[in-house]
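Structure tokens please, single chain.
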Amino acid sequence: MPTARSPAHAPAPLRPSKPLRPAPETDPDDASGGASGEASLAAALLLPKRPAPVAVKNARRFAVYRNNVAVGLIDALAATYPAVAALVGETFFRAAAREFALGNPPTSPVLINWGGAFPEWISAFPPAASVPYLGDVARLEWAWNEAYNAAEASPADIAALAALSPETVAKTRIALHPSLALVSSRFPVVSLWGQATGQTPPNQLDLATAETALIVRPEDTVEVRSIDHGTAAFLEKLIEGGTIANAAAAAGGDENILAERIAGLFQHRLATRLLPPTIDPAALRSSP
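Here you go.
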């Protein structure tokens, strides 16, 4: 089983340029022309100033339950996005998380898959406009969450590739670990995430430095590291179902660099299967 995420040791939070003001508590009945009783109840759970629905017999008990629901959703987001919370501060994050939950309530009692819309939402959230890299950090954290919960997969043996002729190697496709994801950013997204979560010591960052994050869980622990542009292009082409020759052309570099990139796939346990040209590329990211 994967190990839990280590506690965050956050730097001093940034202060967004605009104060966070909660959205007005609109009435879904007014907006939709008549909501169902279940929709009205769900909305009331996330609107702290809205009266309990008529069907509720004990308003005081409902208020306690409503607070517990809101706190639970906010805590779930905070657990998934600790770096985002560290970068903007707890007060800002929890208020923003409540607004997100109001507009994007979970559709299942299992919260492990809830919150995937948060990166795009926070990127467009006006009060967070002064922190333009926040959405990319959130994308990295959601990829971390998905890698943590991804299927297990055994690594492929590089000896199987070495046994093939050069012509066959060029036409071979490589299936990558199902937990693997790439997050490209015009900001130093890996460095920002590392400092915000205490994975790396605080240091002055050049926000004009672009980084691509590789997120993967080949064994028990989710790994996050920055990779160069060529390696990112190489992996992206393999993810798309391209052959080794396709990936090499996309990444550029000489034969020595290609050999290093291929060896790295096996060294870091990113490769799980070798697939000949006759195999459907759609099978590349399927569970073994």
